[in-house]
Design goal:
about 500 residues, alpha/beta, Arc Repressor Mutant, subunit A, Aspartate Aminotransferase, domain 2, Aspartate Aminotransferase, domain 1, eight-stranded mixed sheet, 14 helices
């Protein structure tokens, strides 16, 4: 076994991560077959001359992600359920492509669309507002921002007086590439990264790329899913093919009836249910993309905040043939006011992306980019995320405790990560729409799907009538307790009036 594992003691990656990557890649390539036994941790540690704990930590992560399974008194074995088809080990961007196959830009369709409402006037906000997508208002790293801005605005004037690279500042793209390699298992070259105005900016670029000029464009999207993506795709004339999700994420088998070549997913923390896409579903989705020549848009909007267990490897980290377009944002980790995100595209799509970015805005403001690059390069971003992860975990725990205590029978999904949970109401409770109105009446903002950037297709829907989207990151622990203390008697009083 040990000749397959190569560790570099001078690498920036930890030894535990290197062992995890080597074994995972061997499984994905098929070098390690389903059911094959791995060496016991003690022996592997001796062979590699490292700590046994290092090996055990790597094994624990492989177990958590479903690559290997422990068998009592027998050892560690490769999971039998990992599919062998559709998984290749080539460099995802080394495969030559015929330039004639590139997607052409065409005439923009007449504009007609709806838009999700994320901005609210402060005077109209409830006292305790559980809106989604809002970091805590005091979490912004103001002192770092001030120091970095002063440093970059002192003396140097050239960047402000020149147009920059429309794909984004090189220092920021290089910093993002290093960050994604360390945290999401992705081998990314800076030339594949496009800096955008948040996730929505990236989706606009992709929509122009894939839908403009097509007579009947179509895109598959999770159901329920992100309202902003639904409305945006519709605005470009694309028809939506809704695909149901369950506890393991997108039900890939439902794509058999889809005739388009683009699917949009939020696998790390599905919006709005909060489910995490299982490993076998991820591999099956990649296999579908390979077999059909399709593209997957992976929206990884709040993956920095994982509370229970390791963060699963991104679809882009598993992709070995360049069929995943990865979207990330700093809106959740730093603040939505930055309007700063990025897309990671296969190299052969970057020419079109660059043209579209020039047409849209000639690029993203220089000062915000250089400050975020500093934030990443100096290690301040990771420290900030660790601090906020601990804080948000406490808020999540408080919300779970309050809801489970005051509202027995409730189901909270998506609690393992992110900045929101989906609250499925007890059977005897009023509807989600009624709860929203009751809550507003006592100064609490808890929102049904239509008012929380979520969308569900289907008459009646499986979730929207009985589910609320609970964003807890913008509040304090005491805020959450006071809000639930108000809401519980208000709901009880409403139910008593209805039955009297």
């Amino acid at each position: 076994m040990h000749p397959m594992i190569r560790i570099d003691r001078n690498s920036e990656r930890s030894l535990q991560t290197q062992i995890y990557d080597e074994i995972r890649d061997a499984i994905v390539r098929g070098t390690l077959k389903p059911g094959e036994q791995l060496p016991v941790s003690r022996i592997l540690a001796e062979q590699l001359v490292i700590s046994r704990n290092t090996v055990m930590f790597a094994y624990d992560r492989l177990i958590a992600e479903g690559y290997i399974v422990p068998r009592p008194r027998a050892g560690m074995f490769v999971n039998d359920k990992i599919p062998e088809t559709g998984i290749l080990s080539q460099n995802p961007f080394a495969i030559p492509f015929n330039p004639g196959d590139r997607i052409r830009l065409g005439k923009n369709p007449s504009f007609s669309a709806r838009a999700p409402v994320l901005w609210k006037e402060s005077s109209r906000r409830p006292q305790f507002d559980f809106s989604v997508g809002r970091p805590h208002p005091r979490s912004f790293p103001s002192k770092f921002w001030q120091r970095s801005i002063v440093r970059h605005l002192t003396g140097v004037r050239a960047p402000q007086a020149e147009y920059g690279d429309p794909t984004g500042l090189l220092q920021l793209r290089e910093a993002i590439a290093r960050h994604l390699k360390m945290t999401r298992g992705m081998e990314v070259h800076p030339s594949q990264i496009l800096i955008t105005a948040g996730i929505q900016g990236a989706l606009n670029v992709l929509s122009r790329m894939f839908f403009t000029g097509h007579v009947s464009p179509s895109v598959a999207i999770e159901n329920p899913g992100y309202q902003g993506a639904v409305h945006l795709f519709n605005s470009y004339g694309a028809s939506i093919f809704p695909v149901d999700v369950d506890e393991d994420g997108l039900i890939v088998s439902r794509l058999s009836d889809f005739r388009g070549s683009l699917v949009y997913v939020t696998p790390a923390h599905q919006f709005p249910t909060g489910y995490t896409m299982a490993l076998d579903r991820r591999l099956n989705l990649l296999d579908w993309a390979y077999r059909t020549g399709s593209f997957i848009i992976e929206d990884d909007y709040d993956s920095d905040f994982r509370y229970d267990g390791p963060n699963p490897t991104s679809l882009a980290g598993l992709d070995k043939r360049g069929h995943v377009i990865y979207l990330g944002t700093f809106s959740k980790s730093i603040g939505p006011g930055l309007r700063l995100g990025y897309a990671v595209l296969p190299g052969y799509l970057m020419d079109q992306a660059r043209i579209i970015k020039v047409l849209l805005d000639h690029g993203t403001p220089w000062l915000d980019q250089i400050v975020v690059a500093d934030f990443l390069n100096e290690g301040a971003f990771l420290r900030h995320v660790r601090r906020m992860r601990q804080f948000y975990r406490q808020l999540r725990d408080t919300a779970i405790e309050e809801i489970e205590t005051r509202f027995p029978g409730s189901i909270l999904s998506g609690r393992e990560s992110g900045m929101h949970m989906m609250w499925q109401l007890p059977e005897n409770f009023p509807s989600a729409q009624e709860i929203e109105q009751i809550a507003l009446g006592c100064g609490v903002g808890i929102h049904q799907f239509s008012n929380s950037a979520a969308h569900e297709y289907g008459l009646g829907g499986r979730f929207r009538g009985r589910s609320l989207v609970l964003g807890y990151a913008g509040l304090n622990e005491e805020d959450i307790r006071q809000a639930m203390a108000r809401l519980a008697p208000a709901i009880q009083s409403y139910m008593e009036r209805k039955t009297s």
